[in-house]
Structure formats: structure tokens, C-alpha cells
Amino acid sequence: MSEVLLQSSKSWNNQPMPSYLKGIPQCTILKIIVPPHTRLPEHTHPMMNAGVIVKGELHVVDCDGNEITLQEGDPVLECVDKLHYGENLTDEDTILYMFYAGVVGVDLSCLKI
How many whole angstroms separate alpha carbon 30 and alpha carbon 86? Predict the structure, then answer.
């Protein structure tokens, strides 16, 4: 049995997904743990990535002020090439699994300098 959690050509903030990057394909899956009351640095992603919150919740804000709060079980299609950050506003760890459709030699994210 399977269940589609998310199928979209637009990210959580309604941004259209770009074309896939050119190069040698490389898929990456990350388990990310965000401690309580932690704000992640502002960053961008050069490639499409999607994930699922497996524990807790994550509040995400982009540079245009769009916001979403994701809770346990929620899928998310992240924005590409748009500055954003996530933060855990709760008293428990937030755990999410993220899947990146990238290419060899390209970083998964770029921090704001």
C-alpha cells in the first residue's frame, strides 16, 4: 500500500519549481534534528528538495514574509533559490527527513553571508 503525501510543482510558498540541475545526478537524504528554541541560519537551496516532519514542529519563514508551521506527519516541498529559515519554537526536538535531488559537486544549501 502507498499513500501520496505530497505531489506538486510549487513549493510551500507557492513558488514554481525550477528545472533539474545539469550534471551527474546525486540524491541525498538527510535526517535533521532541530533542538528546542533553535532558529536555523538563513539559507537557500540550489536544487529541489522535499521532506517530512517525523517529530515535533517547524516554523518556516521566507524573505518575503511567507510563513508556514509544519507539524508531525506534514510533508513539505521547500523553496529553491529563495532565502528562508526554519525554527523550532517548542520545548522538544524537531526531527525531519529531507530528500535532495541534486548533482555531484553542488552544495545542498548556501548560508546567507
Answer: 15
Q: Residue 24: phi, psi to the nearest 5?
A: -75, 115
pTM of the model: 0.91
Question: Hey, which bits of the chain come out as E strands?
Answer: 25-34, 38-39, 43-44, 49-55, 57-62, 67-71, 75-77, 84-88, 94-103, 110-111
* Amino acid identity at 108: L
Cell triple for residue 79? 523553496
Dist. CA 16–CA 6, nearest whole Å: 15
**Domains in the chain, CATH or no CATH each:** 25-104 (2.60.120.10)
Q: Distance between CA atoms of 10 and 85, rounded to whole angstroms?
A: 18
Question: How far apart (Å, rounded) are the C-alpha atoms in residues 23 and 75?
Answer: 27
Residue-wise pLDDT tens digits, 95-110: 999 999 999 999 999 9
